[in-house]
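This section describes the prediction task in plain terms. A model, or a person checking by hand, is given the sequence of a single protein chain and must write out its three-dimensional structure as a string of tokens. No templates, partner chains or ligands are provided. The sample shown here is typical of the held-out split.
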Amino acid sequence: MKATMEQRTTMKAVCIHSFGGPDVLAYEDVPKPEPEANEVLVRVKAAGVNPVDWKIREGYMGSCLFPCLMGIDFSGVIEAVGQRVEDFNVGDEVFGRVANESGSFAEFAVAPADQVARKPASIDHVHAAAMPVAALTAWQALFDIGNLEPGQNVLIHAAAGGVGSFAVQFAKWKKAYVIGTASKQNADFVHTLGADEVIDYRSGKFEEMVSGVDLVFDTVGGDTQERSWKVLKRGGMLVSVVQPPSEEAAAARGVRGAFMISKARGDQLARIAELVADRSVKAFVEKTLPVTEVRQAQILSQSGHTRGKIVLLVG
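The expected answer:
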């Protein structure tokens, strides 16, 4: 007799057995996880694709215990709850980020209960799965670290991307003046997000067009980060999510720099979901693919030219 979903001890998941290119991604049978006391087991419906996924695959994020399950963002339905979980029940639709040992490119994933939030009925699983990493990164950079206030000026690099598209919308919701950098092809899109100004980074130098900025949100790094010091007003701040800013460069200009790695926070996800549900903010999904096409999804993500997010359909 064929085992029911509840009786199964294995599941299909995307994993890697070594670091490398997209060809190391395998969709295969792995043990089905069981939730710890403070965790929920989720039947995954959709999983968001993030740049960190291919960076993990290529070994840029440090050591990994192989086989390493891939994927961080998910949206789905709770299948089981740990004995200490009180705020969620079997059958609840939730979205969030997986526990460290889990992966979201899989039929099932586990996550600490405080890292997930209820999915509003007005948001489908695809758009919910697009939110956790990108939205939390933008929210925490702008508000937890950058302390963005109404009326301030903020420069957001790569404003059309997954993180950038959320950052522009959050900053406008906060009533800041928003300047975004993007390609000419994405300029109209960034304007529709709410940006007051959009600079084509290919046709001119943003540091010659912008000055007196309170906050720079750097999602690019390298030369872009170095040039960004010039646009800050004295006392301003640069927050990067790709590389630690130079303390010497910041001190020389009388500004501050901070490097941030986003944290999984269910309470913040719940607040962000409210904004999406009432249409103050929109989660943009450029492309959906079946989980079996994860290699193509990561190739698109690695190109660095996607508009919004890529989402894998799982269940």
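For orientation: The chain has two domains: 10-131+283-313, 134-259.
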